[in-house]
Structures are given as C-alpha cells and as structure tokens.
Design a protein that fits this description.
By secondary structure, the protein is of the alpha/beta class. The chain has two domains: 3-113 and 152-184 and 295-363, Nucleotidyltransferase, domain 5 (2-Layer Sandwich); 201-288, DNA Binding (I), subunit A. The chain contains 13 helices and 16 strands. The strands form four sheets. Strands 1, 6, 7, 8, 9, 12, 13 and 14 form an eight-stranded mixed beta sheet that branches. A four-stranded mixed beta sheet has the order 3-2-5-4, with helices on one face. The chain has a two-stranded antiparallel ribbon with strand order 10-11. Strand 6 (74-79) and strand 7 (84-93) form a beta hairpin. The two termini are 20 Å apart.
C-alpha cells in the first residue's frame, strides 16, 4: 500500500526543545536504539554511518553490530481510528510503580477507506449498466459464492492492512518487543438515541422504525408534505438531505420527503446552499439530522481483525480501553491528538519526551488499472498513455 509521508507539527512545547529521533541500523541492517538528530549528523560527518532511508529518516552504522550495542525494550502503541490512526514508539523504563514511557517517535496514518468505498460503488454502477444495456449477457454472480470466515469489505480491510504494514516497517527499524493497542467497542444505538438507550429494556432493543415502514414513518415525521415547500396532496418522493455523492448515508435520519420539482432543483446540492434563503426551514431540517455512524461501525468491524492480525506477528499484544487512554492523558496533562492518544494507551505511569514533531502519513493507493478517465455520468473523457 503506497503512502505519502510528510513531517507535521502536531505537538509543540515552548518550554522544552523539540528533538527528532533518527532510526539506526547496524552494519548488518539489524535495528538499534534510535538516536537524536544531532548525534546522527555527527556520525554522518565522521563517516561512521550512511543514510539508509529518507522517510522515516534512518542511518546505517558501518562499524557496529547489534551484539556490540545495548538494546532496550520498545513498544509500538496504536490508537486505531476510522479515518486516522495514531502511532507512537516508546522506550519502556521499568520502575517500582507503573512504568515510564519515553516517546521516541510519533506518527498519524490517514486512511483512504472512503475513497475505496466510492470506487467500489462506481464499479458496481458500471457493472449494472453493462448488464442492463444491449450488450453481451453477463449473468449475475453476487449470490453464487460464499464469503470466507472473517471477511471484511475492502475499505475495512485496508485499515487493518495499512496499520499492520507500518508495524512491520517499524520492526525493521526499531527493536520492538511489544504492541499496545486501544480496542474499543461503540454502542451505535446509544450514540444515535441516548434518550432511548438510557431507558434500557424493550425500548433499547427497538429501533427507530419500530412499528413503521420507511415511507409511512417519513409521512408521519414530515407531516405528509414536502420538506422544502410544504406542498400537500402531491406525489412525494424520498430524498436524501445530504446527497449520496456528498457522503450522505441511507439512515432514516438522512431521509426526507420532497415533491418532484424541489427534488429536481436540489439535486446534489448541499442543503445549506439550497435553503440559504430560508434559514428557519434550514434549521428545522438540520435539527432532524444525526451524526453518521459509519466511523463507529468501521471500528466495531475491524477491532478484532486488527487484534488477531497483530497477534499473528508473534509479539505480545496489550489491549486497553478508551477510558484508560483518556484517564492517562488527563492525569499526565497531555494535549489531545491521535498520536499522543496512542502514547497514552495501556498501563502508563508517566509519559516523557512527548514534545516531538508528528510524522503525517497519508495513504494514496497504487494508482488505477483503467485506460480512460470518465465523467460523472460514466462517459470517457480522455485516454491514459502507456508506460
């Protein structure tokens, strides 16, 4: 999986000098303990080291092996997220009480799950068009195969594979002895309807559409009239408030009723733009919108798959809750970022040396196999050159 890496400036401190850790390999390319950039520069100037990799910056010694060096335990700490995963490398200093974690490296990995989902949706639309057009008959094959155990959608499998690939990459540069990850479970019903979830019992088990069909529910909710012009006694269409092309979901909270003229005029516009002239109506519609739960669903689907894949590496894996991470961060008084959340995962007594730059990693994919570029309607607009 290709990734674009840039050096970010997420965590800064005005009281202490910000230092950057440089990864070090011995002359046989075995990982050693990271050093400061000042020491790495001195070894490069004296000819004791060579530049092995630029991002993340790594040097290779020419006069030392791993057996001649002192290696300390290093833990890879992960704070998985649906959009961004925080990663941290910390040197563990055992003490009488809880251990002290000296941060060596911070990074934030931005996933491209939404882009993969959009590409899969576009591919499915092209396939439906080929089957419906007067072309060679292509039989449907969506119901004659069985998914293997543990199957994940490509956009979800991407999140697991990218995190595991970066853990393997860090193992090549740092003597990693343990992995600590945050494994949380989100209650989507409590997120969507906290007032219902608090009651428990039967009310907690029933959904929004209990006793209704979708169309009847929307007719009762919107008063059997168009949500945009209050038209009555006309055919009403089900309309997405946030269009699918803008990331809108099929949740019932994102659906409304609109007459055909309003539905055509709105199209894929943002509801804020379409109702800019009527702020009262806009506020009433936005009050019915709820936050999408796709991120929570992605975390629920991938948390066990990520844990099992990390356990398969042979390293001991420590699991922690989100509450423990928040408690550690509040107790140590550390700013909230994805990378610093990762540094606070697990059993931590104190976090030292966390004032470091954060490496920003963005997944960009491996390109495309298509020979043409297409418009929004699926028509070719240009051909790609062969290389």
């Amino acid at each position: 999986m290709q990734a674009r890496v840039t050096r970010g400036r997420k965590a800064r401190s005005t009281e202490e000098e910000i230092t950057l850790s440089v990864f070090v390999l011995d002359k046989r390319k075995k990982p050693l303990m990271p050093c400061s950039e000042k020491r790495a520069r001195r070894m490069l100037e004296r000819g004791r080291a060579r530049v092995h990799r630029l991002v993340p910056f790594t040097i290779r010694l020419v006069d030392r092996t791993q057996a001649e060096s002192v290696v300390q335990p290093v833990v890879v700490k992960l704070d998985p997220g649906a959009t961004t995963t925080g990663m941290a490398l910390a040197r563990v200093e055992e003490g009488n009480a809880e251990p002290t974690h000296h941060v060596l490296h911070l990074a934030e990995l931005t996933h491209r799950g939404r882009a993969i989902r959009a590409a899969m949706r576009q591919r499915a639309a092209f396939r439906r068009r080929r089957r419906g057009k007067n072309l060679r008959y292509r039989p449907a094959r969506f119901d004659n195969r069985r998914k293997p155990k543990g199957w994940l959608a490509p956009s979800l499998r991407h999140r697991v594979e990218t995190v595991v690939s970066w853990v393997a990459r860090y193992r090549r540069f740092v003597p990693v002895s343990q992995v600590a990850m945050e494994r949380v479970r989100f209650d989507t019903h409590a997120l969507a309807a906290p007032e219902v979830a608090a009651k428990g019992g039967i009310a907690y088990q029933q959904g929004t559409l209990a006793g209704f069909e979708i169309r009847e529910y929307l007719l009762e909710k919107w008063g059997r009239s168009c949500a945009y012009c209050d038209a009555r006694d006309v055919p009403l269409q089900i309309e997405h408030i946030v269009a699918r092309s803008r990331g809108g979901s099929d949740r019932v909270s994102n659906l409304t009723l609109a007459c055909e003229p309003c539905n055509r005029r709105k199209g894929a516009q943002a509801v804020e733009t379409f109702l800019a002239h009527d702020p009262k109506r806009l506020a009433r519609i936005q009050a019915n919108l709820k936050k999408p739960l796709d991120a929570a669903a992605a975390m629920n689907a991938t948390r066990w798959a990520l844990w099992r894949t990390l356990c398969a590496t042979g390293l001991p894996v420590e699991c922690a809750t989100g509450g423990r991470t928040k408690w550690n961060r509040s107790r140590i008084d550390i700013p909230k970022t994805h990378a610093l959340d990762a540094a606070c995962v697990g059993v931590v007594g104190r976090v030292a040396d966390w004032q470091r730059p954060t490496l920003a990693i963005r997944c960009t994919g491996r390109g495309a196999y298509s020979r043409t570029r297409l418009t929004a309607h699926g028509f070719p607009r240009g051909h790609l050159t062969r290389q």
